[in-house]
Amino acid sequence: MQQVDHEIDDRLFRNAMGSFATGVTVITTEVAEEVHGMTANAFMSISLNPKLVAISIGENARMHQHIKDANQFAINILSSDQQNVSKQFSGQLNGESEITFATYKGLPILEDGLAVVTCKLYSEYVVGDHTVFIGHVTGVKLEQKDPLLFSQGKYRELKELEE
């Protein structure tokens, strides 16, 4: 095990990690006929063969146990017009608005997103105060839209650079 420098300030570390621009996802699953969702940006592709993806969920998040119980989850990659959807599932909106879910591959998914990736739980690894859940991809849906981005504590939109 590597030694960790405990002198690094938590806020400095969070700010540095937050400067990495990411897409925004909402992880959804269903347990006992109740739909659960959580905004997350810790998502990545792991393998093409087999098709595997990873999400990282904090041990104190309610979604942590929901994924274990359901043994499956969907990753809803949000489009640039879904900022309020992201805010709702991260608890940033005071009044809870009604969200309508569709079903795809037996999982609740959000409509009007950029993409959806459905997964069966493949493996999990406890790493620090998070669990990395590896999902075996069971389905993919993709629309032609722009992604919702997040960096330095703000939502952002994609802009093409001139060459």
Q: Notable features of this structure?
A:
163 residues; alpha+beta; Pnp Oxidase, Chain A; seven-stranded antiparallel sheet; three-stranded antiparallel sheet
Tell me briefly what this model is:
The chain is an alpha+beta fold and 163 residues long. The chain has 3 helices and 12 strands, in the order H-E-E-E-E-E-H-E-H-E-E-E-E-E-E.
Explain the overall architecture.
There is one protein chain. The chain is an alpha+beta fold and 163 residues long. The protein has a single domain (23-151), classed as Pnp Oxidase, Chain A, CATH 2.30.110. Helix content is 15%, strand content 47%. It contains three helices and twelve strands; from the N terminus they run αβββββαβαββββββ. It has helices at 10-18, 62-70, 83-89; strands spanning 22-23, 25-31, 34-40, 43-47, 52-58, 72-77, 101-104, 107-110, 115-127, 130-142, 148-151, 154-157. The strands form three sheets. A seven-stranded antiparallel β-sheet has the order 3-2-6-9-10-5-4, sandwiched between helices. Strand 7 (101-104) and strand 8 form a beta hairpin. The longest helix is centred in the N-terminal third of the chain and has 9 residues, at 10-18. It is globular. It starts with 9 loop residues before the first helix and ends in a 6-residue tail after the last strand.
